[in-house]
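During the second year of the project, the team shifted from modelling isolated chains to modelling whole assemblies. The rationale, set out in the original proposal, was that interfaces cannot be judged from single-chain predictions alone. As a representative example for this report, we include one of the complexes processed in the last quarter. Its constituent sequences, exactly as entered into the pipeline, are reproduced here:
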Amino acid sequence: MPDTTTFDMTCPLPSADATHVTLAHGGGGRRMQQLIETMFLPAFGNPLNAARHDGAVLTFGDVKLAFTTDSYVVQPLFFPGGNIGTLAIHGTVNDLAMCGARPVYLSAGFILEEGLPMKALERIVQSMQHAAADSGVQLVTGDTKVVDKGSGDGLFINTAGIGMIEHDLSIAPAGVQPGDAVLLSGDIGRHGMAIMAVRAGLEFESMIESDCAPVYPLVQALLDAGITIHCLRDLTRGGLASAVVEIAESAHLHIHLDERLIPVREDVRGACELLGLDPMYVANEGRFVCFVPAAAREDALAVMRSQALGEAACCIGEVSADPAGLVTLRSHIGVSRIVDMLSGEQLPRIC
Amino acid sequence: MPDTTTFDMTCPLPSADATHVTLAHGGGGRRMQQLIETMFLPAFGNPLNAARHDGAVLTFGDVKLAFTTDSYVVQPLFFPGGNIGTLAIHGTVNDLAMCGARPVYLSAGFILEEGLPMKALERIVQSMQHAAADSGVQLVTGDTKVVDKGSGDGLFINTAGIGMIEHDLSIAPAGVQPGDAVLLSGDIGRHGMAIMAVRAGLEFESMIESDCAPVYPLVQALLDAGITIHCLRDLTRGGLASAVVEIAESAHLHIHLDERLIPVREDVRGACELLGLDPMYVANEGRFVCFVPAAAREDALAVMRSQALGEAACCIGEVSADPAGLVTLRSHIGVSRIVDMLSGEQLPRIC
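Output from the structure prediction step:
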């Protein structure tokens, strides 16, 4: 029997029981999931199972709130289509939206590195102001820390958010049911390739801009139309593939996707091919999947397409009972294969 | 007229309109206040005036919640009396307590540096679990990011917290009134000197341990006893002096303190003298000031002293109308002087 530990083609990364933190532990894929499941969940107990959703749902009397947090460490701080500040607002309001919550209040914690130009901070703070206004949220509390030069990387931002849940749906992976349609809100891969292009100094024929945007208006339109949403998930680190695999595993159901139905812009596809990346694993910051009963599929698509952000919305697959916990993908050449989460770190510090 | 810009003894630090971020901008004193007032408040508008309090008070129907956030960047990660994890829990629950809120839920955002030993992370996470249990809060949602080696400093943690306000008092700087007594919950300077000693490799006769602790039980005891609390403020970065100056400025009142009434442990005083530091400006993580009507002073002190954490509680001064916005201190030798905020950064990365 060959020694698979010394030469394992399927997993060229540190093992799950790594003695030290690796970039893969922050990649949004399998390694991060293992870190959460072996380190954080045992310590913090069941409530943090919310980590498998995009936020926690809290009840205070008749009031139902969603609560979520994300830190942002993207490099470079400025990129086509946004900066770390817009990301810090949109990322967190999108996590609230994925709980079916209307984003209302945010906190902002800044970790500044000594030597950061004030002008850069000012531009970022102004972007946050605009992004917050666009997203209908108020920044109500904050914190500022400064670390010595060499102990940070310009600027890290954490935002936590509170949103109001104003409906009786239970929107979570556990709500997904066999027969559900899998809807995607638009084309994938733009945020990751925008960052990658600027970081690698690549110039493509057209500038790829991040898709960074607040998605709550689309969710609200679906709710207002009375669509029975079973689950929502935004496609950030780890991309479409990792998000859908996590849902299949949480829901113990089979999700079948059709690659031919998944929109990828030509310039994004070209950039991915050049760099040997699969768009299925590339990060997005303004895209989500939505699980609805098959009977609601066309209505839901019509609602999504009625808004600019959702005009390319499409159905990319469906849910069935077996094989439970697996995602399969029918590829461009008609072959079906099993899709796994991102196992390592494709693009470090993408958000 | 002498050129005060080239040799200004009172302000040997970068000017307020610095072109780059300096450590002083995170010191909890004047420079940080200037950064908040010139950068964050204009962008984020009035609601972030909550930044002058320890958190924001949010109303949802009949439900009144406090919401706060802090990032923790302390070095070293482990110190006598705690670690960055205990600090991240106690610091944020204490900010909620200072709003008069019962801490209920926390989020935790981890920024890990590639190469951090898993064992260290595990110890810290377990400390957080214990600290959360001690504080009566649940960690309900989280996030993990990893930055490449050299772009962080082991571990930064952000926590945001939600607390319930279950009384009708308005506890804030604006609530302070002439005649109020200024109560201090215990001796000052231990957290800062514990960090300083270990960082500088100093060994004193006795080990100085951080005072890091959750203070809500003291606040709850005061509320349960029907004490009319006007304002609460924990004494973190910038120490007692900066906290009281900020309140005097916010409330447009005069606060007079008596240095002889302010408890400082002998070993802490000795360490401060050795290092040329004033305990009034040294950070604490389990101490707060409480403003109450003079008539409630003795009752409030009795309540505080009935608990271990408040056994050294004392009255250290009083509030009057004029000179508005100023803090004065009667020193050990009986001379009164004006107290200002920490103007620079006495001990960087203390929390």
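Confidence is low (pLDDT under 50) at residues 1-16 of chain B. DSSP finds eight helices and 14 strands in chain B.
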